[in-house]
From TrEMBL:
A Pfam family it matches: GerA
Source organism, top-level taxon: Bacteria
UniProt source species: Neobacillus rhizophilus
Transmembrane segments: 282-304, 378-396, 408-429
GO BP annotation list: spore germination
Protein name: Spore germination protein
Amino acid sequence: MWFRKNPPKREEHTLFDLILQYKKSGDFVHFHNPQTPQPYWISYFGSLIDVEILHRDILPYLNRTALTSIKDVKKILPFEDVLITSERQIIEDALLRGSVLIQLHEKDAACALVRAEMKKSREVTIPEEEYSVVGPKEAFVESITTNLNLVRTRLPISELQIREYTIGSLSKTKVAVLYIEGIANEENINTVCQRLENLEFYQILDSSFISQLIEDNGNSLFPQLIDTERPDRVAGVLAEGSVVIIVDGSSHALIGPISIMELFNAFEDYYINWQMASAFRLIRVLAVSFSILVTPIYVAVLTYHYQLIPKDLMVTLVSSRRTIPLPPFLEAVILELTIELLREAGARLPTKVGQTIGIVGGIVIGTAAVDAGLTSNVLLIIVALAALASFTTPVYRMGNTIRLLRFPFLLMAELWGLLGIAIAFLFLMNHLLRLTSLGRPYLEPIYPPRMKDLKDAIIRLPFSLQSNRPHFLQPQDQKRFLKNKASEVKDIDE
């Protein structure tokens, strides 16, 4: 059998070939100016560069100066980062990032690259999803440079470290990993960095892509990383020992590792006194439990355990369901789906129209359903309260999880009543016990129990009693501050 021992060498593409390839695109400019003391060729993508920089800081200097070599470009232009290179990959990346390519002759291998990218980003605005009455009113934007600046200004220390990556074979998205050296656990840092380095994906358009790709369990409904739009929250968790991921083009940063209790904590809790913050956290936990369980319990009790209903309440329930042709399960499912339809319609429509649809649609449909005898007014109130309670979670992704959890609990309540709800709860707890966030227990400090971390979990004790950082993060430096110093009260004359 004949075979070729030495395959032919792959033909190397020159810079001229690269320019010919880019000229197929309508926004690529390849221009020759022979009317100068030293003729030159200039190439760039018109959609990526700032034309003002080109005509103000590049062309005037090239047009009035005689160049003897390509290195002279670095001397005459008012830029510190002019790059002289002949490496194809560097040239290709620079052109696609908004640089201007300068050659003395069209087929030269060496060229000068000048950064002139167009920077278009919106101004820093107030947070929309995590708005708070008390505290800073700044939110992340889509520019990674601006976002890093917002964090750096809050943590002006040399220990704040940033590792940058480029991810996405097509999008070439910049991703930054932030942590404080000497506080963040090395294992957490290495876990995040290793997972980012091992990513092989064609495009990263938002931080949610990263979250789905590096989470411990991608099939879980529960978020294992917190996404936030608040720079103050990012600065706060970095000081605790967390690791933060910021993605170019995304207005949300990712925080990890996390525990489930952090999903019920708003960062505004730290801007008010500890008694009010603790009360609000308890309200959120109770509201989420109410949102998941109240409708399934209604179905279970009316279907299997009506003996548990007090006589006075039974009269009300019987009168409200006297003309209802549907069983409680179908009645509850229809109402839950109606609430979800109204919520989705309100979210997808423009703001003013969406608010009108949500309010007017809910009133009209609810009233019409009760008048038509399709649902009872008692269940309508219960479903509306359950939907309202699901909005109390500060983390948007957790709110979506609560919305979906109601349906399997409803199904189990229809099949086996309260026993079915107990079985569904056991399955849920089994899943949460096995779930981790970057390798850390998801249910901490409840399981494994850590009494010290309970100081800032369901309740928030005063700052003076929280001298240690969260234990589940395993920070290198456990101490936030010296407890004895914090509790000292000096005399007025001192």
